[in-house]
What does this fold into?
Amino acid sequence: MIFDDYYLHTVAAQAVRNRLTHLVGWLRKEVARVTVNVALVRILSLGSGPARELRLLAEEPAFREAVAVTCLDFDPQALRYARGQLDGWLNGRVTYVRDNALRFASGPHRPVQPYHLIYAAGLFDYLNPTQASRLIEDCHGLLASGGRLLVGNFCVELPANERALIE
It folds into this structure.
């Protein structure tokens, strides 16, 4: 019981518990904002994992019709899972890319068309400060005019005992 209470109140546990709700709300609001000026909102999910937030939003016709999504993850199983969740909802409007986010944003295969929204829910928890700032800079180069970048992070200095748990 004491262990349960400890783990449920860590910074990481609290962040993960609230992440999905926050992402869904942010994406819904930002897609509505961008659709005022463009017909198709281009979204990049860095370290997309299972893409649960996209799956929930895909049930909304207004979201489904307004977006083209790129799910980027290094883990092929995560991309397969995301495909299983999104195909049938966003058919033809999702691209699945297996790559390292640090290479994708600055590499030779970087996308030509800019994104209106780029977000990373948990990826930055695994990056050191130098990698994080470089990726943020590279992502800014991928944004369309007026585009937005959302970076989720447990905290700047995650305690060592909690970092061990997420790794």
Summary: DSSP finds eight helices and five strands in the chain. The helical segments are 2-8, 11-34, 52-58, 61-66, 76-86, 101-104, 129-142, 160-166.
